[in-house]
Structures are given as C-alpha cells and as structure tokens.
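Re: your question from the hallway

Yes, I did run it. Sequences:
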Amino acid sequence: MPKDHGIGASPTRREDVRFLTGRGKYTDDIALQGQTYAVFARSQVANGVIKSIDTSEAEKMPGVLAVFTGEDFVDVGGNPAGWQINSRDGEPMKEPKRPVLAHGKVRHVGDAYAAVIAETEEQARDAAEAIVAEIDEQPAVVDMAAALKDGAPLVHDEIETNQCFDWGWIEDNRAATDEAIKNAPHVTTLELVNNRLVPNAMEPRASTADYDPGTGDYTLYTTSQNPHLTRLLISAFVLGIPENKLKVVAPDVGGGFGSKIYHYGEEALVLAAAKKIGRPVRWTASRSESFLTDAHGRDHVTKIELACEKDGTFIAFRTETMANVGAYLSNFSTATPTFLHGTLMAGNYAVPNVYVNVKAVFTNTAPVDAYRGAGRPEATYSLERVIDMAARELGIDPLEIRRKNFVQPDQFPFTSAAGLEYDTGDYGALVDKLEEMIDRKGFEARRKESEKNGKLRGLGVNTYIEACGIAPSNLVGVLGSRVGLYDAATVRVNATGNIAVMVGAHSHGQGHETAFPQVVADMLGIDENSVEIVHGDTSKIPFGMGTYGSRSLAVCGSAVVRATEKVINKGKKIAAHMLEASEADIEFTDGQFSVAGTDKSVGFGDVALKAYIPHDFPLEEVEPGLEETAFYDPANFTYPAGAYACEVEVDPETGKVTIERFAAADDFGNVINPMIVSGQVHGGLAQGIGQALLENTTYDADGQLISASYMDYAMPRADDVPFYSVDHSCQTPCTHNPLGVKGCGEAGAIGSPPSVVNAVIDALQSGGHTNVTHIDMPLTPSRVWSAMNS
Amino acid sequence: MYAFDIERPTRIADAVKLLSDSSESQPLGGGQTLIPTLKQRLAMPERLVSLTAIPEMQGVCKSDAGELCIGGATTHATVAAEAGDYPALAALAANIGDPAVRNRGTIGGSLANNDPSACYPAAALGSGATIITNAREIAADDYFQGMFTTALDEGEIITEVRFPVPEAANYQKFDQPASRFALTGVFVARFADGVRVAITGASEEGVFRWSEAEEALSKDFSADAIAGLSLSGDGMISDLHGSGDYRAHLAKVLTGRAVSAAG
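Structure:
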C-alpha cells in the first residue's frame, strides 16, 4: 500500500497551485514605489580594448537618472572564484579580476561596459544606444587548443597566458596509470567533445535593488539559488556593504539549473545605482542577454583511454581534458571541471588506476560554470562512451562488461581509485532492474520490425555514479573551497501547534515546500499541511548555503531533521513537567508524549501551547518557546547511482534520430516523495536528451554566438522526448545522513547523454556503418547523416 | 521596440493609400517576422499599417474555374481548417510553427516576406499559384526573386492568392530542429499537363523549382523516377544545422517521399 502522508507518500506539490495559475511572485513581479530601470550597454565584439566611452549624449536623454561605466567601479572588488585550484606544479590558479562593469577591455560578446538608469525601460534603452564607445576590436580566442598555443591573443593580458590551471588528479597515481596503460593487453582511446550548453531557465535573470537613506539598509530582490551566498559575495568581496545592512531576497525563481547560483555584476550595479539615485532600480534580462551572459555549462574537449584485459577487466582510465572557463572565472567554474569531475572518473567500477589531467582555459566566450550535473555529466559521458566502445571492440555485451567491473555490494564502503569513499550501492541490482524495464529480450524483434520500415534501431546503455550533497566542509576546505558547505534550518513551532520551517535551501522547481513538510510532519506525527516552509530571504532564514548539486534534502533536509529532533527533545522536557514524570521516561510517538509503561500522555499541540503560555512552567529548567535551529555539515558526499537505457530509431536517409524508449533505474536511497523524484528525473532526462540530440551552442571564430536565440538553439520540446520508464525501487540508503537520502535533482541530466549516443552508434553499426564509432553531441540529423556518409 | 503609430484600415484602398502616404510606413500582416524584429530594435518604421482588419482579404473560397482563392490576410489556422479542397495545402498550413503562430501568421505575410525557409513559398511555386495584389496579378514563377526578395513593389500588398488544385500533391517538410522552419521542404504537385516540384529551405536563392525532377516525374510519377537524379550542394544554404550537400540530399529524399505520399 503506498503511504498517503508523511515520508514516502506523494502528495501533489502545494506550490504548483500558484505556479500553474499564474500567481507565482517572481523578482520582475515585485513593483516598488518609484522604481527605475537599468539597461546595460554590452560589447558587440568578443575581444576589444576600450579606448573611450562617451556618455554625455546619453546623460542628456529624457528620463535618464544616471549612467555608469567601469570607471565607477575601479575602487570596488572583483567577483571572486569560490574555489582555489592549484596546478600540478603547486602554482595557484590564475585569477584575473572580474569587475562589475568591463574596464579597459571587453572580453566576450555581451560583456557589459556601461549601464543607464532611467525612469522607464524604453528611455534607458534609448540612452544606452546613445552611449558612444570606441572599442578597438582585437583578434578573439574561441577554440581552447588555439588559446593554449604560444602567441595566441590573450583574454587577460595581465596573467600572460590563457591557461587558468593545469590540474592533476591524483597526481601520485599518474606514473602507475601511465605504466598500466603501457602494458595493457587492450587500450581503447576516444576523443570527444562535451558540448557547451546555454542554461535557458524559463525566468530570465532579474534584480531589483532598494536603498533606504533613512536607515542605510539595502534590499536586493534577485533570481538566486542561494541568497546568503550572494549576500556574502557582495558584502565581503565586491561592494563591501556590511552583511547586516544588506538583505537579499530570492522570491519565486523560475528555474536555475546552476546558472543562478552565481553572483553577477548586474546585481552589484543595481545596488550601487539605487544608493546613488535614492530610488529602487530594476533590471530584467532579455532572452538575448540570457543567451549571451548567463554562465554556460559543460564545454570540455577530452581524450580518454581505457586499458583493460582481453576479458574486459578494467585496468586503468586516463583522461586529458581541456575545460573552457570562458572570459572570466564564475564563482564555481574552477571546482566544476576538477573536484566535481576528476573525482568521479572511476565511475561505478573497481578499477585500480585512474588519472585525470584538466587544463582550464580562458576564451573570449561567456563564462562557463556548473550546470545541472556540473562535472559529473562530463565524467559519466567520457567513461560510459569509452566503455561502450571497448565492449564493441572486445565483442563483449555492453552490460556484461560493466557488471564484470562493478564495485560489489560487499565491498562498501569502497574507496575508488579517484579518491572518493562510496558509502553504499548495489549496481548489479540496478542493471537487473533496467533489463526488465526495457524488455531487453524483445529488442531483436523490435529491431527487425524497424528494419522492415527502413529504419535502423539501436539500444544504448550506461551506468552512472555521482557525488552530491556537497559536502563535508573540512574536506572541501582542504581541496580549495573558500566557503563551507553545510546547511541550516530553524523549526518554529507556533503556540497553536502549527509550524514554520526556515530553511537555507532555496526552491526553484524542486518542490521543497511539499517535501520538507512531509519530513517534519512524519517526525512530529502531525498533518503536513500545518507545516509551512520559509526560504529565500536572508532576513528570515538561518545562514544556509542554498540549492545546487542535489544537496537540498541530503544536507538541508538533514538540518531540518536535527532541528526537529531538538524540538522533540525540548518537548519531552515540557511534557515531563506536565505529566509530572521524569524526562527520561518520556516517549514521543505519533504526536503524543507519553510516560513509558503508563497510559499518561499529552499531545504535541498541548506541549506547544504550554511553551508559549508558560503560566505553569519549569522556567528554572527550560526556557519558554519552542523553536530550534540546527546546522548540519555532512560526513561525506552522497552517491546516487543508476543504470539507463535508450532505444532509438535512426532514419538512414536523413540521419534523424527518434527516441523510442527510455528507461532509468536510479538508486536515490530513501525517497521522501516518489512523485517529485520521478518529476525531477523526467526533467533531468529531458535536459540530457537535449544535450545529446539538440543543444548546439556555437561561437564563430570571431567569438560571435551564432546560436543566440531559439531560432538556432534547439531546446527539447515535448515531442522530442519519449514516455519515460523510471524506477527508484533499488534503494541502498545513504549511511551517514539521518534520512538515508542521496539526491535526485541532477541524475537524469548526468546519466542520459551516453545511453542516447551509445544507442545511435549501435543503430548505425547494425546498419553496416562499422566505421562510425563516435559522433560528437548534439547528434543532429545533419551530423548523423554526415557520419554515415563520411 | 521603438515607438510607432499603427493604423488598422478596413478597406484595401485605404491600406494602399496609407502605405503610399509615407515612405516610412510598413505593412503588417500577422507580424510573425516583423514584430520580433521590432522587439529587437532592428527596424524603426514610423507607422505600421495592419492588413488584418480588411474583410475582403480574409477567408478561403473557390473560383468558378475551380481555383482555391485565399485572402492575403488569412491566417494559417484558417487555411488549415478551410482549404479542405486542397488537402496538401491545408496540411502544409497546419504544420507551420505552433498554434500561436498559426493563429496570427498570414499567407500574404509569409509570401511577401519570402523567408528562404518558409513553407508557403513552396506551395505557391509548386502549385503554380497566382499572387494577386492591389495592382496586378503575378504568376508564382515570376514572383519569387531570391531570398527575402519578391516582385512586389514598395507599398504593394498581396490581397489574394489563387491556387489551381492539382490531381495529387504533397508537402514534405524536414524540420530545422530549433526554429522548426523547413531545413528543407519539398512541394510536389501533379497536374494534368505535368508535375511541378518546388524546394524551400535549401537554396541561397530562396524557393526554386527542380526542373529535372519535374521532367522525370511528368513521365513517371514515382519515387523511382528520380533515383538517378541529384542536386548539387553548390549554392545551397550551409549553416550550423546542415551543409549545402546535406540540404541537396534532403531535397531529393523529400521529393521521393512527397511523390510516394501524393500517390
């Protein structure tokens, strides 16, 4: 029987009532008295020296209140990188300053060099067009290999190179891995591109700043996944506004996928402008600005080698990757290709040798940072493509070669050759489930049917493991993180027994407002509808680190559990007094505090009331009120894993790929709301399929973004994706967090691209195109056709 | 968007007059190209003259000669619903864009714009339609003059498009994955006196007729009849969605499929 409430039940998402009826309240919906509008003047060239900026005409235009250029921000700080990476030789990474507005040079198309504040958006736009900027265009670097060559144009002259760092993981394993590959009976080598993606949140970025001259208080309403982090960056690094004078509010946010983790210059600009003119200032990105300036995702060029025995036993994985960081270091751009990528390069496998080399490269393109999956999709894609290729070369079934090399259930906890300690898992069970879900036995018959219709049919499989719930602060600190990665929650029980939970996580599509109450209600034995979630406002919530990396439930949910436990413990003290019993004898079950071995009990609501109306209360032993806060710092990452399969048809005449079946068997540990989990997987799969088949971010040699609108950038639509078969019944609960949960937000996007590509290669091979062993994503009809006819 | 005035005349003569009053006036059909252009501030007309409030430019009917007559301001949705006498044309209209596009976009707007990847130019050229304007009648063969270029004069508006109805016809569209315009589209129509084949989305010169295929198909209306033919990729559009060679190949594949589907 499925549960109808609490942990494990699937109540519909309460937030959807407002989202689906158009009643969500987003940053751009917030209208402040007297608000003004900011419009940015942005570079049309990818690399240029700013000779002069003449704002005199713009300042005289109707409605214009202020004009800013980079000159106005030379004395404030840069937007910093949040993670320091050291190169193999011990040198720290290069960290050129990322200013609020470009100064001296523009470094990518869309780089803002000036901003206008005016009474209306149209007036601001008119004035922005009247700014005369003399920008001396320089040759641009777009291609990473070219950027690393001697004599290449420099993105940042002051660092004298385009290489941000040259990182090795694990450097001590390098020689052994090289040796193992040299002596291996079989080595499969694959060169591939992990294509750059534009995040495309439905809601564009927006920021509205308000300044109160009476108090000196600033308020920033902004599209953020982590308002406290944004406040910290603005306060401690960029503008120096004291944290106690800056409130950051992230109201309803229409999707982030990583791109709204980061602090952007527009946020600092509207704050500075609001103070200067003494009125609120609003900026909302156009879709074109989103394409040009949101932090993009992925963009790796990789060579991976798999060394194995003739029987398919893995001996070593060696990876060399160039990772594009774009023109400036976005906040987590240095962590993504390193510790979120290199550490996963052992996959689900008990392989003895792993070595990863990553060179991060500056180019005259938009900054690149974490995007749904962040590093783990890149790792999974490289591994699962090269494994598939090796299986084909060795004539081994693609699932069998994986099974043969899996970390076995009795090996956990298992320290991988890439240095992570996997706490728990059962990868064989996932593959068994997958085979059942896709009806593998029936595949040959389906293939024949397709061939009768002139189509090629292919089946692609892969597994994945990811690390999420990032992570123990002491570990990430050692690895270079400049922030802690705990989270926090306050459980406030009201006098009448209902509850507000203030969480550090931020919901922008994840369903926290439904799932967190399920946890609290289950623990307290109360109706989940009497639990409300408060998030997104630094003046209301404890200092949390926000939502990304599939961390909300594993990290913040654990803080919620800890705070709720504290509430129960305090409730026991109050109940002991009410029941005239010893605290040690009080038990709490199903919302009742009772004296063990007796029929004496008091309900949770009565205890809450007593806490706030303490007429008869043991004030010498316990304080009034019932509100508790917990900060939770996990002991390890969590390790969701899965096995995915994709079945495609390829039209050999046109190269068009159609996904016929897609199955995803995931192990997320315990599941709080299975419906929300399925929804998260569905969304992730759509993004992974989008990357595999459709999304083609293309800069030309001059650094112009060719795919800068939906006329050329293909997002997955409903008819591009199949009816998914998803399952999360294989559960090996996380061993180190109180809920035993792992995280499901990114899995679909991490796990799906390789199975799609593997399926297409399988289809083409079956059609006699035996020379086609790899095609780079996205597998557009034109690329597939070209591969078949090359 | 820059500020502009807008007029919504209800008679063709008034529209023509408004357009000739000022060289800064621009006609507005369904706005599916012009409005996005304005929103991006890539055009700054002083005045737009909307053509969608003119009753005589609306709707689908049949002439005494059996031709299908479609008012220039008729939306794609209306053509899809009411051009049942010419099923291939109705099907083409039903597959342009999405419902929002089909309920605003007009046949006259599409033909006047002559986007090299639009669907209607293939139907008009493939059917040998006649483009009727406020001033004259133009045969489709004379009308399309290259990418975004037509025989229309400044201020001249398409009031009606007249389609002869073929014995058999079919349109095959291969979607560009992002825009879902035709990466390549082929309209094949078989008339008593011969076959016409019009290809959109492929050529740098816009929609064109594939005369070798027409000749072969006029003799033998079967996909096999074009098996030995091929189009050159030279002069075909080459972009991030496909090379010229790919488009040339698609044109042949789609021609065969259109012939098979037309039956």
